[in-house]
């Protein structure tokens, strides 16, 4: 799959996860809405679907990876940044085929585009710690 298609999948998944976090709507309903009205044809649809269906089911596990590295309670994190952290933590934990640097870089780009002005610094710090925990061998070799 092309990097552009994967990037679009992450972008749309971020928007869908944000919607899920705020509304607690069924991910299948959110998927239907996105497929009907928002998704670009160049998007990696399989990856979009994987993200929006797996992250809501696994969010407690994903949050557990984050919580030790957060500087504030999870409920105080900006909802966009929380969705980005969940998406990227999912990639770090479950998608070992994606290099950790790619996951973090994509998260930073999403945060710069959709998050708060300085949010990328917070996201980077948290994801760096998570990557060191979940990708010990990969991070040790790449440094």
Features:
single chain, N-utilizing Substance Protein B Homolog, Chain A, about 0% strand, globular
Structure description:
The chain is mainly α and 143 residues long. It has a single domain, classed as N-utilizing Substance Protein B Homolog, Chain A. 76% of the residues lie in helices and 0% in strands. The protein has helices at residues 3-23, 27-37, 45-66, 79-94, 100-114, 119-134, 136-142. The protein is globular and about 40 Å long. The model has no long low-confidence stretch (mean pLDDT 93).
At a glance:
The protein has about 140 residues and is an all-alpha fold.
Task: Give the topology, please.
Layout: H1 3-23, H2 27-37, H3 45-66, H4 79-94, H5 100-114, H6 119-134, H7 136-142
Percent helix: over 70%
**What is the string of SSEs from the N terminus onward?**
HHHHHHH
CATH topology: N-utilizing Substance Protein B Homolog, Chain A
Secondary structure class reads mainly alpha
What is the C-alpha radius of gyration, as a whole number of Å?
Answer: 14 Å
Number of helices: 7
What's the architecture, going by CATH? Orthogonal Bundle
Shape summary = globular
The number of distinct structural domains comes to: 1
Number of strands: 0
CATH superfamily: NusB-like
**Terminal-residue CA separation:** 27 Å
The top-level CATH class is Mainly Alpha
The residue-averaged pLDDT reads 93
Strand content: under 5%
The profile of the biggest β sheet is:
none
Report the uncertain regions. Answer: none
